[in-house]
Amino acid sequence: MKQLCPRFEKAMQLFSKRWVGLILFELLEGSKRFSQMETELPISGRLLSERLKMLEQEEIIERKVYSEFPVRIEYGLTSKGKALEPVIKEIQSWSENWVTHQEVESIQNEN
């Protein structure tokens, strides 16, 4: 039996976590505040926070704190995260060609 490359396996474990792909897709547009992402994604604040911390630990996103009042915090892609853009765009293209309307409706009903 063929053994998986440990790096590929690690990447698949990371990106297969629910919401990670959508968070990265949102951040391709540019840096965003937590509240913006919470509004744009059908995800709880607790889980969004968890995923953002994980992506920050993996150095895929960075958290910038602006010393304003009130404090402004934005999340954006690092160069490591930006390197995922062609992969994410290719998945988007694949989904437009192969994911049916019925499959989209079933996902929307789950949320």
Care to give the gist of this entry?
InterPro entries: HTH_HxlR, WH-like_DNA-bd_sf, WH_DNA-bd_sf. The chain has seven helices and three strands. The chain is α+β, with helices and mostly antiparallel strands.
The strand count comes to 3
Largest sheet: 3 strands, antiparallel
Strand residue percentage: 5-15%
Shape: globular
CATH superfamily: Winged helix-like DNA-binding domain superfamily/Winged helix DNA-binding domain
Number of helices, where a helix is a run of at least 4 consecutive DSSP H or I residues: 7
Helix content: 55-70%
Number of domains: 1
Low-confidence segments, given as residue ranges, are: none
CATH C-level name: Mainly Alpha
Radius of gyration: 16 Å
Main sheet strand line-up: 1-3-2
Q: What structural class do you assign from the helix and strand content?
A: alpha+beta
What is the level-2 CATH architecture name? Orthogonal Bundle
> Helix and strand string, N-terminal first?
HHEHHEEHHH
Provide the CATH topology.
Answer: Arc Repressor Mutant, subunit A
User: What distance separates the N and C termini?
Assistant: 38 Å
Mean pLDDT: 92
Describe what this molecule looks like in 3D.
- The protein is of the alpha+beta class and 111 residues long.
- The protein has one domain: Winged helix-like DNA-binding domain superfamily/Winged helix DNA-binding domain (Arc Repressor Mutant, subunit A, Orthogonal Bundle), CATH 1.10.10.10.
- Helices cover 59% and strands 13% of the residues.
- Strands 1-3-2 form a three-stranded antiparallel β-sheet.
- Strand 2 and strand 3 form a beta hairpin.
- The N and C termini lie far apart (38 Å).
